[in-house]
Every structure is written in C-alpha cells, then in structure tokens.
Design a protein that fits this description.
Elements lengths: L37 E2 L20 E3 L6 E2 L1 H10 L12 E3 L1 H8 L2 E3 L8 E3 L3 H5 L6 E3 L7 E3 H11 L4 E3 L6 E3 H4 L11 E3 L8 E3 L3 H5 L6 E3 L10 E3 H10 L1 H26 L1
Antiparallel strand pairs: 1-5, 2-3, 2-4, 5-6, 7-8, 9-10, 11-12, 13-14
Length: about 270
C-alpha cells in the first residue's frame, strides 16, 4: 500500500475475506454499491470494492499504481467528492473491468429472498428478482403493509382494509374499511330497530319513516282534534279512545255545527 495511512473504512489487501469464505449477506437488488447476496461460489479477493468491502457492482479498475477495484457508483461518488484514490490519494481515474464483471456474473448465488430455493449465476439474479414469488413488496392498494408476491393476491382479495368491497345489503361499492364501518350507519337496506319505546319492530332503514306512520308505540293526537278533542295517546290505544268517546265526539261535532250555523246567520244579516 501507499505510505499514507488509509482510512479504516477502506480495504487493504490483508483485510480481504479468505478465499474459502462462501457466504456474503446482503441485498443484491440494491441499485448501487457492492453485491450483498449469498454466494455459493466464493468471489476472488481482487473482486471486492475497496470502499464498500463487497464484490464490486459494475467494477471499475483504478488507473493509479494501486490498481484497486471500485463499484461504479462508489467511483463516481469518490471522484465527485474528493477526486482522488482512497488508497494512494492520487488523481482518481478508472475504467470498466469487464473481465472481473464476467467472472462475478458467472459465480453461483442464492436468491436473497427468504425461503426462495432459487440458485443460479449472479448475472441472472436481477432477472429472477423481477419475478421471484418470495420478494417482499408493498400492498398495491396503499395500506402500508408488505407481503411476499406469492401472498399478495390473497391479501388484496381477502385481507386488505383498502380492497374494494360490495355491501351485502345494498350492493354499493367502496373501500372495505368504509363499507364495513361508516357505510353501515347509513346503508338504506340495513335492518334497524324502531326507536319508539316498547316497539320491537325491525325494518329497513329506508322504510323507517313509513313505519313511523303505523308504529303502535308512536304518540298521536285524536283524529277529532279539529272539532276540539285534545286527547293524546299511543296509536295502539287510540281505537279504545275513539270507541269509548263517541258521545264526547258527537257533542263536539254538534257544537261545531251550531257555531257554524250561528256564524252563517250573522253573515246573512250583514248581507240584507
């Protein structure tokens, strides 16, 4: 190495993993930085990025005397920030190392998704990840939950609180959490109990107003109110009142007739 002491975050030749190491844990689907997947075939010591300490993604070979390897993203970041090699501090320039890229892509790796049995070459991993049924993905309805692709369909159809749902009572459509919550408080076809004390009737919400006009427990006025009867009772007891008050109602009616007759006579007097 160069005589200058390098930062502890940089990799020296002696700190490379031994060639017998078989497993490197991480996520190969990262868009930048080194590969972090489970390697079945161990990468060569020279295949590691000196910044990320992982097998280099899109490997770039430095042109300085160090001749070390960087991931393309690490190279671009280092060149933009410092512009010098992190090992020797000389001007940083690099070129794509296609030989190392081919060597890495030929190594066998395991899928990074828990439970997935897939094993194949690193170069095929990204294509596999795009379709892997074990990849964890966010709910497409936006409920903020995450599921394996193979479980997502069941979640969307049966479990997601934001899935589309049809009301069992009125066939209206909406989001499940709303349709099974606040919608039930206004659904016109939901059966509801009459609010009148003692009435045991259950009717559809849309028919509740009509029920009120026949509810036996509703308080109503005597139908002979217009001729002066002030009696008020439950509807179920009104017939008893009418049947027992025939004479009273008749007297009230006669009184109204007499009054009308008197008023008519007065008008006739004014006319002649």
């Amino acid at each position: 190495l160069h005589s200058m002491t390098s930062p502890s975050s940089y990799l020296s030749t002696s700190s490379f993993p031994p060639s017998k190491r078989q497993k490197i844990t991480a996520r190969s689907e990262e868009p930048s930085g080194g590969y972090e997947c489970d390697f079945i075939d161990a990468p060569h010591n020279d295949d590691y990025c000196i910044i990320r300490l992982r097998p280099a993604r899109d490997p770039q070979q430095t042109k300085c005397d160090c001749a070390k390897l960087l991931c393309k993203s690490c190279y671009e970041k280092q060149k933009g920030i410092a512009g010098t090699c992190p090992m020797c501090r000389k001007r940083l320039d690099a070129f794509p190392d296609r030989n190392i890229s081919r060597r890495l892509n030929a190594l066998r790796v395991k899928c990074t998704s828990a439970g997935c049995p897939w094993e194949n070459e690193l170069g095929m991993l990204n294509g596999h990840i795009d379709n892997c049924e074990y990849v964890v993905t966010d709910c497409t309805n936006g409920c903020k939950s995450s599921h394996r692709r193979c479980d997502l369909k069941h979640h969307l159809m049966e479990e997601c609180p934001l899935r589309q749902y049809v009301c069992d009572h009125c066939n209206d459509k909406g989001v499940y959490v709303d349709m099974t919550g606040k919608h039930l408080k206004v659904c016109p076809n939901i059966m509801v109990r009459c609010a009148k004390t003692g009435c045991m009737a259950s009717v559809a919400r849309k028919d509740l107003k009509d029920h009120s006009s026949i509810c036996p427990k509703a308080t109503i006025k005597c139908p002979y109110l217009k001729i002066g009867c002030q009696f008020v009772s439950l509807r179920e007891k009104m017939d008893d009142h009418i049947n027992s008050s025939t004479t009273v109602h008749l007297d009230l009616a006669v009184g109204e007739i007499v009054k009308l007759k008197h008023d008519l006579a007065k008008r006739q007097d004014h006319m002649y």
